[in-house]
Design brief:
Elements: E1 13-21, H1 27-43, E2 46-55, H2 67-80, E3 84-87, H3 93-103, E4 106-109, H4 110-121, H5 125-152, H6 162-201, E5 206-211, H7 217-227, H8 235-239, E6 243-247, E7 253-258, H9 268-273, H10 275-282, E8 286-292, H11 298-311, E9 319-324, H12 331-340, E10 345-346, H13 355-366, E11 370-377, H14 382-394, E12 396-403, E13 406-414, H15 418-421
Parallel strand pairs: 1-2, 1-3, 3-4, 5-7, 5-8, 8-9, 9-10
Antiparallel strand pairs: 6-7, 11-13, 12-13
The structure holds guanosine-5'-diphosphate and magnesium ion (MG).
């Protein structure tokens, strides 16, 4: 079986990256895309030693680049000592085989590279399972392709060699594994849905961090959760490391979730795999869109993120734009950003500046949709006492009095959690 991953050897692998320019007008676009590919190679632990952009109106069906260019690529790879060649586009199984044969090196396409990076970065059990599933699903048709090619040779003697037998076993093994993964993901997913339901019952608002890869989501996640790190209610914390509790300045709590990073042209196999994770974004009460303010192609990345949000149906969720890495841009640039998006917030998650202001904005946004209610409780009833405690955690208590042995509480409660208090 062909090796499908950038290897995990400690030595940095040397990579050649190759892109196709479909006509002069698209040159800039192709250059930008291959720059990003270089970044992805680095993220996968490789080192770019060769870059090649080939201009051609249409990919060659057999060799993608055209056979002359493929020989050139082989020579350049030998010269620079490249271990692996990464194509910026998706290759057909036939092209992949043909190029691999001529170049004599491991060939990956953009999708496989991205899948490899996600495989390394996945932190939750569900995430790991989903990436493996996406990898195998991507691999399977490529193996099937090889089988078809062999059988087209006419079948019979000489074509049913050990190669095809091995292929059959590989295919069967992969199908079995895909099936097992599917079952396991379903179990994890149900567990996750139960957790989500429990959170909703507890009426703790959830805030999801989204953003382009490398925008600083995880840094911000740590800055925000580190601030109020004491985990009084460890229920969600231990079971899902991506969701953690944050205490707001008004002493209410919220749950913050860190999500996968978005990238341009996120392979569809991967979006499908992460749909369940991304659906959590659609169900959040608030989305924080973390933006790397210092990225030269900032606007394009923002658009890419908004597109994914649209795909998972998260456009209805209230959103705060958070310009991160503001320590890395000039004061002028910061003012320009602020003028452009008056609702946005400029912070530095790394230096922890602006984080308090962000927390206040989150608080304000979450309490926009509240209703003031007056409730009375029996202080001797344990159920009522638990409700009072929950009010303090999840609502803003304005008045708390005892009258004739009853506790009277006036509070602002988020509309969505009203039902759980008004039994
Ligand atoms: P994620 O992919 O969105 O989770 O991004 P990370 O949190 O992993 O951060 C990516 C890189 O950006 C890391 O090297 C961080 O140290 C860096 N980074 C994060 N926040 C800031 C910031 O406010 N300022 C600067 N200068 N760098 C930051
Ligand atoms: Mg991250």
């Amino acid at each position: 079986m062909r090796s499908q991953k950038v290897s995990r050897k400690p030595k940095r692998e040397r990579a050649a990256i190759v892109g196709l320019v479909a006509g002069r007008a698209r040159r800039l676009e192709a250059e930008r895309s291959i720059d990003e590919l270089a970044g992805l190679v680095q993220a996968a632990g490789g080192e770019v030693v060769l870059r090649m952009l080939q201009e051609r109106p249409k990919p060659d069906p057999a060799t993608f680049l055209g056979s002359g260019k493929v020989s050139m690529l082989a020579a350049s790879c030998a010269e620079t000592g490249a271990d692996v060649v990464v194509f910026d586009n998706e290759l057909t199984p036939a092209q992949l085989r043909q190029i691999e044969e001529e170049v004599g090196r491991k060939i990956l396409d953009r999708t496989q590279l991205i899948l490899d990076i996600f495989a390394r970065r996945a932190r939750t059990r569900e995430g790991k399972l989903q990436v493996e599933l996406a990898q195998l699903k991507y691999l399977l048709p490529r193996l099937v392709g090889a089988g078809d090619a062999l059988s087209r040779l006419g079948g019979g003697i000489g074509t049913r060699g050990p190669g095809e037998t091995k292929l059959e076993t590989d295919r069967r093994r992969i199908r079995v594994r895909i099936h097992a993964l599917g079952d396991e993901i379903e179990r994890v997913r149900q567990r996750r849905a139960q957790l989500r339901e429990r959170r909703q019952k507890a009426s703790v608002p959830t805030v999801a961090l989204v953003g382009y890869t490398n925008a600083g989501k995880t840094t911000l996640f740590n800055a925000l959760t580190g601030a109020g790190a004491e985990a009084s209610d460890a229920l969600f914390v231990t079971l899902d490391p991506l969701v953690r509790q944050v205490k707001l300045p008004d002493s209410r709590e919220l749950l913050l979730s860190d999500t996968v990073g978005f990238i341009d042209r996120l392979p569809h196999a991967l979006i499908a795999a992460f749909r369940a994770t991304l659906e959590e974004v659609a169900e959040a009460d608030l989305v924080l869109h973390v933006i790397d303010a210092s990225a030269p192609d900032r606007d394009r990345r923002m658009t890419a993120v908004r597109q994914v949000l649209e795909e998972v149906g998260a456009t209805e969720v209230p959103m705060i734009e958070v310009y991160n890495k503001c320590d890395d841009i000039s004061g002028d640039e910061r003012r320009r950003l602020q003028d452009q998006e008056p609702g946005a917030i400029c912070i530095s998650a790394l230096k922890r500046s602006g984080v308090d202001e962000l927390l206040q904005t989150i608080t304000a946004r979450l309490s926009l949709d509240v209703r003031r209610v007056t409730l009375t409780f029996n202080p001797d009833d344990p159920v009522d006492r638990e409700l009072i405690a929950r009010l303090y955690r999840n609502a803003r208590v304005v008045v708390h009095e005892t009258r004739d042995g009853r506790v009277l509480i006036e509070a602002d409660i988020a509309r969505r959690s009203l039902a759980s208090f008004l039994r």
